[in-house]
Amino acid sequence: KGIRRAQRRMPRLKANIPVLLGLVCGQQRSKFFAEYLVRLAGQEMQSVRSISFREKRENQPASSPHFAVWTTESSSPAYVERSEGYGHAWAQDYFKQDACDYCDDVFAELADATFMDAWLPGFEREPRGTSIAMARSALCRSILESGMQSGRLRIEPIDIGDVIRSQQRVINLKRDSVALQLALKPSSALEFQPRVSPAPRWRIIARFRKSAENRRVTASWKALVAQRAAGHGLLTFNKSINQSTRTDTLLLNFLRLLRAPKRVARITLRLGNSFASRLLSIRTAS
Fold it and tell me: Cα separation of 211 and 228, whole Å?
């Protein structure tokens, strides 16, 4: 959006930037998220040569990437698995950007072409990953088609409904998160008019979860500052953030316990429906 606004004021940028490409939003983290993962891998920031947030392996599905960091101290990379704190840090929104809480642009709407992961049955198990490309300009469409005709790209058409389904989680997350954030902070304080309406006042528990998330994000920044002063590793960070979020964590865990019976009932109902449909298909076949 910033580039498009700049192009309006400076026409020469339209010639200098003939094509604008975008990625479907998966939330944004600051550079400190990278530092956190480097420390988690047991490495020092001053020795980092390069990093990969989504390093893939041939025997693993694309949905299970791990973090890799290459340093000047070793020729082989150090890894952090999703289960070793990488996934936890992401789920806990450590170092999340404030702007994310007010943005509902999931599909990079102002880009000439948008690319995204094909989180769909039949594609998720592919170790290298599969991308969905959505062209909005004739130029981008022709580029993709020429790549397909030359054999450099393998492209198959996909229904727009499948495109939406592939990103349904992030669509729900972004829209719900923005609505809750606007309920906590009036839109009059913003420099733009959000397209999402604030969450209703009766969503008290959801609003508490969002406020707890905001406090956790702030705590993560402060905890890393404390860690930098203390030295290497993450001992100070973990101690600091646990102290800052202890009350919220206890309350959120209590709320999860209250929701447990409803979740069990929902899963039981889903399994029952699945069993009934299979039984019906067996009887029909016989």
Answer: 26
